[in-house]
TrEMBL record:
<feature type="transmembrane region" description="Helical">
    <location>
        <begin position="98"/>
        <end position="125"/>
    </location>
</feature>
<feature type="transmembrane region" description="Helical">
    <location>
        <begin position="320"/>
        <end position="345"/>
    </location>
</feature>
<feature type="transmembrane region" description="Helical">
    <location>
        <begin position="69"/>
        <end position="86"/>
    </location>
</feature>
<feature type="transmembrane region" description="Helical">
    <location>
        <begin position="296"/>
        <end position="314"/>
    </location>
</feature>
<dbReference type="InterPro" id="IPR036259">
    <property type="entry name" value="MFS_trans_sf"/>
</dbReference>
<feature type="transmembrane region" description="Helical">
    <location>
        <begin position="236"/>
        <end position="255"/>
    </location>
</feature>
<feature type="transmembrane region" description="Helical">
    <location>
        <begin position="389"/>
        <end position="410"/>
    </location>
</feature>
<dbReference type="Pfam" id="PF07690">
    <property type="entry name" value="MFS_1"/>
</dbReference>
<keyword id="KW-0472">Membrane</keyword>
<feature type="transmembrane region" description="Helical">
    <location>
        <begin position="366"/>
        <end position="383"/>
    </location>
</feature>
<protein>
    <submittedName>
        <fullName>MFS transporter</fullName>
    </submittedName>
</protein>
<dbReference type="InterPro" id="IPR020846">
    <property type="entry name" value="MFS_dom"/>
</dbReference>
<feature type="transmembrane region" description="Helical">
    <location>
        <begin position="187"/>
        <end position="206"/>
    </location>
</feature>
<keyword id="KW-0812">Transmembrane</keyword>
<feature type="transmembrane region" description="Helical">
    <location>
        <begin position="267"/>
        <end position="284"/>
    </location>
</feature>
<feature type="domain" description="Major facilitator superfamily (MFS) profile">
    <location>
        <begin position="27"/>
        <end position="411"/>
    </location>
</feature>
<keyword id="KW-1133">Transmembrane helix</keyword>
Length: 413
């Protein structure tokens, strides 16, 4: 657990006096480039998938919620397997690379799936399996390549680079749709080509952080399960899952915007750009703020921003500026939570179990968000749009208040 001692404060101050380019290791930058290119590929698909499924194939909100939940939750078990395998074999880069490669191949799978909802669901599950395998080893590499006092900044830089890809992905998808006269298959094939480049970048430029034989011998299933006996780590894992349960998925946020303001289908892929732009601007500043004032406080503030965005979406008034505010708050939510949570958890974990421990937290979130998508889709189907959004916002803000009172640790983290 990271404890704010005078020594760590002096270290943070010393780091702040260094030139900006020396604050983040080259390995973090290389991983950021891999994530940037990968996100161009994945966001191309994400940007068009809701419309493809809801408007193109005619799915209702509950059916879409089931698929969206599968998309979010298919990573649950493989996150643990990927994290533990990476620690056990001492090959973080190899396991991450396999995950990136699997996700790339799945873009071709979408071409083969055609209009079959079952086949699309299977391909999405396989794609998320690849993401589940790579995420914990990748975040462990970032953590192990960084100074503990500046983990928030390192994760912020990585997430900012990742978000550049998220920003470019929808633009590329729109360009491909325009050039191909609305051919979704062209988007899927282009996405595969971009993902293949990311795998190549990983192999050429990312350095592995291998553990020694003695450390690997201590990386057992019993040791992994023992992580949850540590009270602070157990609490942060539980709260991350509970907050994930009351967090609605991105696709639903964009569908709510589309329904409430009648966004034209050809403009729908632009909606994620609002989220990505704010995420890009705030990821590094909020990462640095988390290092200074406390990572849990910033993490919870991000969920408050999401709750505010939902209240705006469910409000009685509309207009372009309301939509802009909602997307800005949605981007702030990600900037304050995504990398900050991993930065908070990293110092709690021994180096030999870093990927495993991060996978435990990410697995809890994945399962919770899978359930959240299904529940919100059901609420939308039964209650209609605005009541479902109001209930989601209210439950989220109550959960944030509870998490602020019952902190996962007693000291600054």
């Amino acid at each position: 657990m990271y404890i704010a001692t005078s020594r760590s404060s002096d270290l943070a101050a010393e780091v702040d006096r260094k030139p900006a380019l020396r604050r983040v290791s080259a390995n973090v930058v290389a991983l950021g480039m891999v994530s940037l290119v990968t996100d161009i590929s994945s966001e191309m698909v994400t940007a068009v998938l809701p419309l493809y499924l809801v408007l193109g194939l005619g799915l209702n909100p509950l059916q879409f919620g089931l698929l969206d939940g599968l998309y979010a939750g298919a990573t649950a078990v493989v996150r643990l397997l990927g994290g533990h395998a990476a620690d056990r074999w001492g090959r973080l880069k190899a396991v991450a690379g396999f995950g990136y490669g699997l996700s790339a191949v799945c873009k071709l799978g979408l071409l083969a799936a055609g209009s079959s909802v079952a086949a699309i669901g299977a391909v999405l599950a396989a794609d998320r399996t690849g993401k589940g395998l790579r995420t914990a080893p990748r975040d462990a590499l970032i953590s192990l390549s960084s100074d503990p006092a500046t983990l928030g900044r390192s994760f912020g830089v990585h997430r900012a680079m990742d978000t550049v890809g998220a920003f470019l992905g929808p633009l590329v998808a729109m360009a491909v749709l325009w050039l191909s006269l609305g051919n979704y298959q062209a988007v899927f094939f282009t996405s595969f080509c971009v993902a293949a480049i990311a795998v190549l970048l990983l192999g050429l430029f990312v350095r592995d952080r291998r553990s020694d034989l003695e450390q690997r011998a201590r990386t057992t299933v019993r040791a992994a399960l023992g992580l949850l006996r540590d009270a602070p780590f157990r609490r942060i894992s539980i709260w991350a899952a509970l907050l994930g349960l009351v967090t609605i998925g991105d696709s639903f946020v964009y569908l709510v915007l589309q329904r409430r303001w009648s966004v034209e289908p050809q403009l729908f892929p632009l909606l994620p750009l609002g989220t990505a732009g704010v995420f890009l601007l705030l990821a590094v500043p909020l990462g640095r703020l988390a290092d200074r004032v406390g990572r849990w406080a910033v993490f919870l503030a991000g969920h408050v921003a999401l709750g505010a965005a939902l209240l705006i979406l469910a409000g009685p008034t509309g207009g372009i500026w309301i939509a802009v505010c909602a997307l800005a708050l949605h981007g702030a939510f990600y900037a304050a939570t995504d990398g900050v949570l991993m930065a908070a958890a990293g110092p709690m974990l021994p180096a030999g179990l870093r990927a495993t421990g991060m996978a435990v937290i990410q697995t809890g979130q994945a399962v919770a968000r899978m359930a959240s998508s299904v529940l919100f889709g059901l609420a939308w189907t039964v209650w209609d749009l605005r009541p479902a959004v109001f209930v989601a916002a209210g439950v989220l803000l109550v959960a944030v208040l509870a998490a602020a009172v019952v902190k996962p640790w007693a000291v600054r983290a």
